[in-house]
Amino acid sequence: MATTVMSDVDLKRAVEAELSWDPSIKAPAAIGVRTKDGIVTLSGYVESYAEKLAAERAALSVSGVRAVVNDIEVRLPTSGQRTDEDTARRAAQALDWTTGIPRDQIKVAVDDGWITLKGTVDWYYQKVAAEDAVRNLTGVKGVINLIEVRPTANKDVVKSKIEEALKRNAELEARRIQVETIGNKVILRGTVRSWWQKKEAERVAWQAPGVTQVENQIEVIA
Fold first, then answer.
1. What pLDDT sits at residue 156?
2. Which of these, 154, 160, 162, 190, is most buried using a 10 Å CB contact count?
3. Which CATH architecture does the domain made up of 155-220 adopt?
4. What is the pLDDT of residues 5-39, one digit of tens each?
C-alpha cells in the first residue's frame, strides 16, 4: 500500500491546529509556523520557557512531522521578570528540593535569564531531573544542560540491555532498530513510524547505566 505524504500546506495547518488546541500555549497566534518536507520551523514569541517547550512538543506530536526547529523567543512579561541573582537562588533551592540527584555535584550559573547547569552524575535520569527542576521557574528564558554522565559500564552489557529493553517496549518495533556501542556511546539506526517512536527509542537507550552519549540516526518514515 502506498504511503500518503502530507503536503507542506496541510502539515502547516495541522501544526497550527495543534498549537491552538494545547491549553498550555497562551497565544498560539503569536507563533509562526513554516513547513518544508516534514521539517517544521517555529518562530514568534511566548511568555515563558515552559510555553516554548510546550509549543515544540505540540508540533512534534503531529503525524508527518519529522523534526522541529524551535526559534521561538521568550519575552518575559513585566510580572515574570526576575534578577539573575533571584533566579540563581530559586534554581539552587529547586535543586535542593529534588530527590535522587547528587546535589553537591551540580552547579548553577545564570546569565540574562538563561540557566546553565554543570557537573557530573551517575545516571542520565539525574541529568534530566536537574533540568526539569529549574526550567519552569518564573523568569527563566532557557536552560543549557552541560551536566555530564560519568562512564561506568561495559559496552557489551550496555548493548544487550538496550536491545532487551527495546524488545520489552510495546510502542516500538525493536526488529527495525539496530544498536551499536562504541565505548560509552550508543548509536541507534533503523526506521520508525513517528518522531515520538524515535525519541522513545533514544529514551530507552539513555536509561542504560554508563551511557554518556546517544547518537540517534533512526529515520522517521511516515
1. 67
2. 162
3. 2-Layer Sandwich (3.30)
4. 689 999 999 999 999 999 999 999 999 999 999 89
State the fold for domain 82-149. Answer: Histidine-containing Protein; Chain: A; (3.30.1340)
> Could you confirm whether domain 8-74 is CATH 3.20.10.10?
no
Comparing CA positions, the residue from 52, 136, 120 lying closest to residue 87 is: 136
According to the model, what pLDDT value does residue 147 have? Answer: 94
Q: Tell me phi and psi for residue 29, to 5 degrees.
A: -65, -20
- C-alpha dihedral sign at 50, 54, 56, 60: positive
Residue spans of beta strands (DSSP E) within 88-153: 106-111, 114-121, 142-145, 148-149
Q: 3-class DSSP state for residue 222?
A: coil
- C-alpha cell of residue 83: 534578577
The count of residues in the chain is 222
DSSP string, 56-90: HHHHHTSTT--EEEE-PEE---GGG---HHHHHHH
In sequence order, what are the residues at sequence separation of 6 or more whose Cβ sits closer than 8 angstroms to the Cβ of residue 160? Answer: none
Q: Residues 139-176: pLDDT tens digits?
A: 999 999 999 987 666 666 678 888 888 988 877 888 89
CB 147 within 8 A of CB 121: yes
Sketch the domain layout of the chain as residue ranges: 8-74, 82-149, 155-220
pLDDT surpasses 50 at 2: no
Instruction: Answer whether 33's CB lies under 8 Å from 16's CB.
Output: yes
Q: What's the average model confidence in pLDDT over 100-108?
A: 93
